[in-house]
Amino acid sequence: xxxxxxxxxxxxxxxxxxxxxxxxxxxxxxxxGSEALEMAIKNEFDLILLDLMLPGINGFDFLKNLxxxxxxxxxxxxxxIADSRQVVQGLDLGAVDYIRKPFEWDELLARIRTVSRFSxxxxxxxxxxxxxxxxxxxxxxxxxxxxxELTSKEFVLLEYLVxxxxxxxxxxxxxxxxxxxxxxxxxxxxxxxxxxxxxxxDKGFDPQLIKTVIGAxxxxxxxxxxx
Length: 227
Known about the structure:
Blueprint: E1 2-6, H1 10-22, E2 26-30, H2 33-42, E3 47-50, H3 59-68, E4 75-79, H4 84-92, E5 97-100, H5 105-124, E6 126-129, E7 132-135, E8 140-143, E9 146-148, H6 152-163, H7 171-178, H8 189-201, E10 210-213, E11 217-220, E12 224-225
Parallel strand pairs: 1-2, 1-3, 3-4, 4-5
Antiparallel strand pairs: 6-7, 6-12, 7-8, 8-9, 10-11
Helix pairs in contact: 2-3
């Protein structure tokens, strides 16, 4: 799940980003409303965490423009504003939830999981390739009848591979989308994680799903199944 954090309080934004990254989510941060809107329109996010009092354009104008451009990304408002009229205004403009600052961390995670389950009900909940099944909201993985335990980062990597099944993914693409990192030719983090993932997903199973495409990258190859 890829989340855009639109928050001008840099310390709070960093705290949220660190916590969500540790929980296995991909995150990007923006401190300006206009820049956040441009990012939200040009990139594919699964969720936006939105402060209302942003520089550039405020959260209400962000929501108006987001829907005008046809983007349907779910938005959770995170704001210190307690006026019920403004809460209602934000929800009427298309936000799916509203959390008042200061908030409990577990509450934020629970709200995010709720949005994830709702989004999953529209067809993204479970993904199957051959006999491999991943349940995105619950973060559970099975190969046949065998449940497979993955770390948060392994799950993010597998989800990205599965959503792009039968496409060759470069090391740079994997770093950007599973780690939010730029390409580093000296880093072997992709090779290490792909080796670990292969041992869990492919070892003892047939067919072998994860392929190395020499000189190009990696591919998860298999027939997509209806769920």
